[in-house]
Structures are given as C-alpha cells and as structure tokens.
Amino acid sequence: MPLTRLPLNPSYDEACDICDHWQLNDWQPLLDIIIDRHNITVSQVSQNFEGTNPVFELTLNSEQSEEQAYIVKVLAPNWHSQFQSEYHSLKLLNGQDLGIAVPKLLYSGEVDNWYYLIIEKLEGVMLSSVMATLALENKLEIAHALGQFSARLHRLDVAGIPEIKLDWPEFVRLQRKHCYAKRKKQQVPTALLERLTSYLEQHISRLDTFLKSEEMHLIHTDLHPGNLLVAARGGHYRLVGIFDFGDALVCPDPLFEFASPALLFAQGEPGIFNAFLDGYGYREERNNGLQQHMMVLSQLRHTGDLNYLLHHVPHCADETRWQALESKFFPL
C-alpha cells in the first residue's frame, strides 16, 4: 500500500505536473518518512524552487551534527537514470580531493517508487546569481578553476561505476539517427534544421579520435553557472562548490565536458573559454577543428535544447548556418 499520495508509476506529464506544482505541504508526508527513516532531527524544512527536480533544505538542530543543513533531492520514477547518475557519481566522489567541494552523499532511498538523495549543503551562492556583477578578470579566474576541477574529475578511476558507463559508439550512432527528429521537436529554426544532417555528415569524423578509446572519464556534462557555487573572498568571487551530477556519465570523449562552459559560461567571450582550457591543461590545437568537434557533440547531446542555446548565447538567434555558429558557440 502506498505510503504517500504520490503515484507509483506516473506518466511523463503527471510527473512533470507534480514536480512543477506541488508545494511543501504536498511533499511533507514524503519528507516526514525520509526524516524518520534516517533519524534526522530537523528544526525547519524549506522548499527550493530553482531546480528542475523537487529539492528541499533540512535545517538541523545544531547539537545533532556539524553540518548546518542537508539537501533532499527527489526524483520521479521517470527519471531513475538521473538518480543513478547522481548516486553513483557522488558515491565515487565521496572522499576524493578535487580542489573544489562537491556534495557528500549521506543517504539515499526510495518511497513509493520515487527516489531521493540526501546530501550535504555546500557553502556559496550560485554563480548565475552574481554573474552580471563580475568583472571579466574574476570570470577568468573562476573559469580557470573550473578547468582544473574538470581535469581532476576526468583523471579519476571510473572502473567502480559501470552503471553509468555509455557504450560510446552505440550512443553516437543512436543520437545521430534521431538527431533531426529531436531538434525538429525542439523547433530549431528551419534554415538550421535543413542543414543539420549535412553538417553532421561532414564533421562526424571529428569524433573518431575518442570513438573507440578504452580510456574512460567521469563527465559532469552540465558545468554551467547554475550548478557552480562561488563565495566572496579577498574582493573576488572564488569557485567553491559544484553540484548536480544528475546528467553525469562515463565515456571516452573528454570534450563532452567542454560544451557547457563554452556555451553557458563563456557566452561568446573567448577569454573565458580559453581560461577554462588553460586550467584543464588542454594542449591540443585550439582551432576550427575543436569547434566542429564540440558542435557535433552538442548536436548529438542527449540532454539540452539547441533552440534555447540559440537564444541564450549572444548574437546567435538569427544565424542560419552551423558554420557561422561554431565560433559564437565555442569562442576561441
């Protein structure tokens, strides 16, 4: 018998409606079960409305723990793969020194076929909330630190998390097969859509370098300002935390990591993306071939909306050719 009024097997639309519209009172029975199950003494529960999935903050009684608060992330059965990605990533990262904090995984479980993760709350504010106030110099420092973090992440031994390892050649094949239909559904402009297949055919070979490589990397895939935490120190904001590993995966192509910082952090500013590459220690040529490689990966990406990027990255909304977008999406 269900313990809450959450549906055991919601449709996609039903799950979206619940996640988008349920208020704290609706979620309280689930949270009470989770809190009781893990013997957490809580003084306050609040709801965070900034994420795609339902997220809650549990303020702890100070005598119970050194941590001031825990974060509870709830995932519908429809997004079990996101639970798997975050659970296995954070389990691997617990105790690792990446130079930048990532949340410690404390507890996890399932109630009525809905999954949850309990993680520590990190210090800092989202970079997206202060980005507009930062000088370019400060953005370069953050980008460099993000590149260093990515390099450390990619050097980890991922043999212990086969659950989120992609069959990379098969992934590329299937994403290429369904790319046109997916981007059409996202309402990518007709002029670009008509050139999509030919662009892929012309540049898909850029992926050959890593296509059958046996060296695997944990890729966060979503290192954008909304998932980066910064704190003011010495008159500058410093990168202090990185969260949301819900789209993380294991694959052989490290460049799959580069797209989000280029598109959503650099936003057309070459200095920012080059600072990220410097921090990463990227030693290959920074040329149009790199831009084409990342463009193909972005077109094939299993998550994300290309139409959103066209309107979010400066000076891209009116472009009709993928070649013209290469330097704007991935500024070098």
TrEMBL record:
Q: What SUPFAM superfamilies does this protein map onto?
A: Protein kinase-like (PK-like)
Q: Which PROSITE patterns match?
A: PROTEIN_KINASE_DOM (PS50011)
User: What InterPro entries does the record tag this protein with?
Assistant: AGP_Transferase (IPR051678), Aminoglycoside_PTrfase (IPR002575), Hygromycin-B_Kinase (IPR016259), Kinase-like_dom_sf (IPR011009), Prot_kinase_dom (IPR000719)
Top-level lineage group: Bacteria
- One Pfam family recorded for the sequence: APH
Name the UniProt record assigns to this protein = Aminoglycoside phosphotransferase
Q: Which UniProt keywords apply?
A: Transferase
For this UniProt entry, which residues form the secretion signal? Answer: none
Please provide, alphabetically and separated by semicolons, the GO molecular function terms listed in this UniProt record.
ATP binding; protein kinase activity
What is the protein's species of origin?
Shewanella sediminis (strain HAW-EB3)
Question: In the UniProt record, does the keyword Acyltransferase occur?
Answer: no
Q: Which residues form the Protein kinase domain?
A: 42-332
